[in-house]
Amino acid sequence: MAQTNEPPTTSIPVAIEVKSIHWPAESSGDGCTSSKASDPENQPSPAQRRRANIQLVALCWTTFVIGWNDGTTGPLLPRAQRVYGINFAIVSLIFVFACIGFLIGALSNLVLDPRYGFGKVIVLGTLFPVVGYAINASAPPFPVFILGYAINGVGMALLDAQANGFVASLRDNPETKMGILHAAYGAGALSSPLISTQFAQLPHWSFHYLTSLGVVLLNTVVLIAVFRLKTQDECLTQIGLPPGEKGTSESSQIRQVFSLKVVHLLALFILVYVGVEVTTAGWTVTYIINIRGGGPSSGYISSGFYAGLMIGRVALLWVNQKIGQRRVLFIYSFLCIGLQFIVWFVPSLIAGAVSTSIIGILLGPMYPIAMNHAGRILPHWLLTGSIGWIAGCGQAGSALLPFMTGAIASKSGIGALQPLLVSMMAFMTFIWAIVPNSAQKG
Fold first, then answer.
1. Is 385 within 8 Å of 110 (Cβ atoms)?
2. Dihedral Cα 405, 406, 408, 409, nearest 10 deg
3. Is the separation of the CB atoms in 228 and 102 below 8 Å?
4. What distance in Å separates the CA atoms of residue 242 and residue 166, rounded to the nearest whole number?
5. Alpha-carbon gap, residue 154 to 295, rounded angstroms
6. Which helix (H) or strand (E) holds 97?
7. What is the pLDDT of residues 257-301, one digit of tens each?
């Protein structure tokens, strides 16, 4: 009898052992979950799928808010110059103070995330723009006005870091979900210029920030209701995913993140990319007004650009998969440079507006492609911290490069915008070429 019972008792531990090593082996590769999907025991329940969709929608609203914030400034720049009586260089201090806020937020995320967790940090991120928008809505003196942008920047960096880190940690078709997440960013950036262009022509132009305040307060309520201040591991467990892997020295997460070369390369790529994106959307309005003779409605060109951005992040998903995400980014970059030459050399308002919209379509997929790449090659226990820093640098780029543009334009004129954008796009393409394509173990 003892011998007849021996095979079952030895086979059960073997089965358990194989299953225990199966998940990490799959998740450490390219981030896909094809084997997980084929295992019926690992399939999430309908309730878990529904909750996963609710979580994704909540994070999409968060990136909508970030896009709304980035799309607001461009149409308001000419009005701010007139109200405060300042030149291109001074008004560009808006971007400098926003950059300072973004960098503070990105660094703070590395400290706050391991200590307090996803749910608390992302809600904290919504509170900073509540303060910033409340300050700016009163059209205070310019030094206080730009301080509002710095406070706002801290919160946007925290939101960007947490939303991207969470979606990059998903293991069920993360490429599509990342594309949807950033399409929501495009929707926000598309919507806000439609509103801010109208406010820019009204006596109480700064009341646009009251609209922004309402948008971010709604985001706070949604995040608390959906995630309930829980950690990322707890939220992943709710949708049927195992907790993320843990590193061997979690207390030294900052040191581990900054020791990875690929983190710095991706951060630099995203910094330049977002700088190109926000510079195009922001300063092109001024370029069209001053160089092409556009009227006050030129602010809608910014909406056209962000509409393209939103469309590109969803409509081109199949192209990215067919050609390959790394290779297709080079194609998009070269096409963007060609279209930028059209804006530069073809003296047509319509040609410039259409080309800018198509540039938005082609730039759109680049950010989610870079984030998906980070999810594939970075250690999972450092993913949220690393992506937080990368995204924070992107937010800094949304401030730094537009400021550089304003400073150059104050001396050389706004006509310097086009050669500057072409140079930025070429540099961005070079950085992508040297980003490693293999996994980084930390």
1. yes
2. 110
3. no
4. 13
5. 34
6. helix 93-116
7. 888 899 999 999 999 998 998 888 878 888 888 888 777 677 778
As a residue count, the chain comes to 442
pTM of the complete model = 0.77
How many other CB atoms are found less than 10 A from the CB of residue 167? Answer: 25
Burial 171-193 (b: 16+ CB within 10 A, else e): bbebbebbbbbbbbbbbbbbbbb
Crossing angle, helix 46-84 and helix 174-199, to 10 degrees? 30
Residue 407 φ then ψ, to 5°:
-65, -40
- The per-residue pLDDT for range 393-424, each reduced to its tens digit, is 887 787 788 888 888 888 888 888 899 999 99
Instruction: State the sign of the Cα–Cα–Cα–Cα dihedral 272, 274, 277, 282.
Output: negative
| Distance in angstroms (rounded) separating the CA atoms of residues 19 and 13 | 10
Closest CA to 23 of 38, 45, 8, 11: 38
Q: Name residue 301's amino acid.
A: I
> What is residue 413's three-state secondary structure?
coil
CB distance 179 to 365 below 8 Å: yes
Q: What tokens appear for 141 in the block?
A: 């003196």
Letter string b/e over residues 277-308, b meaning 16 or more CB atoms within 10 A of that residue's CB = bbbbbbbbbbbbbbbbebeeebbbbbbbbbbb
Q: DSSP of 285-348, one letter per residue?
A: HHHHHHHS---GGGGHHHHHHHHHHHHHHHHTHHHHHHH-HHHHHHHHHHHHHHHHHHHHH---
C-alpha distances (whole Å) from 267 to each of 9, 47, 151, 182, 206 are 52, 37, 22, 17, 33
CA distances from 311 to 210, 280, 363 (A): 28, 17, 10
